[in-house]
Specification:
By secondary structure, the protein is an alpha+beta fold. It has nine helices and five strands.
């Protein structure tokens, strides 16, 4: 009887040790993984930019010629300086004149002008410095009744679009993003009565879309919940 009790005690103790090791490992993984992936992404992007920029930089301007080390990120710094200088020149009269002259040449080229116009519109939309942004986040029934999706209220329909659908009442332009890439989605014109405006900010709604519903603004982040479950596996087991 004592022997069996001793064996059971040893087995339980081993299980508790393994459970502690497993919980500590997973907790550390949850903490380290985002940091490691972020640093890896920065390191990779810096190397990619260097590979594009440094071939155009004169050898006497490269720090590795004086230090003897290949310093990653030099191309990023030079690219930022070059971009700032170009932007400063483009704001002046001479810079604007050169840009207009160059665009007039491009517009005379059949295929290139279409590509240039498209890329210019995309760049102006993405990097616009104006205060134009989505008004609020909302819920809209999509793709059918009874299924709700998060969308962003843009503006009230105007111009030809409003004139064509005016007989059906005023419509609101909403952008329905996709998960996990919110930069792509659908532009919908929906009656305002069919929208449910949300109190959460546009940024919080975007986080909800990007995380595929794992991070709610009014709740605990998924990473924190995972850490709590790892620290107390018995609680999560009892709940299930």
């Amino acid at each position: 009887m004592n022997r069996r009790f001793y064996d059971n005690h040893v087995v339980r103790r081993r299980r508790s040790v393994f459970a502690w090791l497993r919980g500590s490992f997973l907790t550390g993984l949850v903490v380290i993984a985002p940091i490691g992936l972020t640093l890896w992404l920065i390191w990779t992007v810096a190397g990619w930019v260097d590979s594009w920029v440094l071939p155009f930089v004169p050898i006497w301007l490269r720090p590795d010629q004086y230090v003897g080390l290949n310093i990653r990120g030099v191309g990023v710094v030079l690219f930022l300086i070059f971009t700032v200088v170009v932007g400063w020149l483009a704001k002046g009269i001479i810079g604007r004149s050169l840009i207009h002259w160059g665009e007039s040449l491009v517009h005379n080229l059949p295929v290139i002008r279409s590509v240039y116009k498209g890329l210019k519109q995309i760049a102006e939309t993405v990097f616009a410095q104006s205060d134009t942004s989505f008004d609020k986040a909302c819920l809209v029934e999509y793709p059918r009744k009874g299924i709700w999706a998060i969308a962003f209220i843009s503006k009230t329909a105007k111009g030809e679009v409003d004139a064509k659908i005016a007989r059906e009442g005023g419509k609101t332009a909403v952008f329905l993003p996709t998960t996990p890439n919110p930069t792509s989605g659908f532009l919908l014109f929906v009656p305002k009565s069919d929208l449910i405006e949300l109190e959460m900010s546009v940024e919080d709604a975007a986080k909800l879309v990007i995380s595929a519903g794992l991070v709610y603004p009014d709740g605990q982040p998924a990473a924190s919940r995972a850490i709590e479950e790892i620290r107390d596996p018995a609680t999560s087991t009892d709940e299930s």
